[in-house]
Amino acid sequence: MSIPRVSSNGSSSSSGWKYEVFLSFRGEDTRKGFTGHLYTALTCKGINVFRDDKELEIGKPLSLELLDAIEKSRISIVVLSKNYASSSWCLDELIKIVECKSRLGQMVIPVFYDVDPAVEREERGNFEEALTKQEEAFRDNIEKVETWRKALIEVINLPVLELKDRYVTFISY
Description:
This protein is α/β, with parallel strands linked by helices. The protein has seven helices and six strands, in the order βααβαβαβαααββ. A six-stranded mixed sheet has the order 2-1-3-4-5-6, sandwiched between helices. Helix 6 packs antiparallel against helix 7.
């Protein structure tokens, strides 16, 4: 995949993108492992990547900086790990990513990290279990959980990279 370069002043000369890649990931699952290595590899190749290094406090909404970074990224790489859907912050990011895909033509690349995409597509894996728990936690705002579910279903049905036992498989559905 070829990624157009962002100029040294932080914006793409042809499109107005501030970042070439936005990384969406569950910190406790992959921050110090896969996502950390991916970030390093991309930045070593000169790719301008936004990775949120801040730990969000429970109950706080996503920052405007984070939402702005999603909107100003040409590509979002969504690292779907076992606990991704148990994080309301990850799911809120995902809603914004799907919105930017539809509205701005942002490319979205899902990467399944130690999660079976076939099981998740059948809505019987980690994500469905997490969303069931989210329904309990957000029973006064079930519409929010349904919005998360729709965004997750849209992303898991895109062509994916599956990481299993350290091998990468590209799967196109």
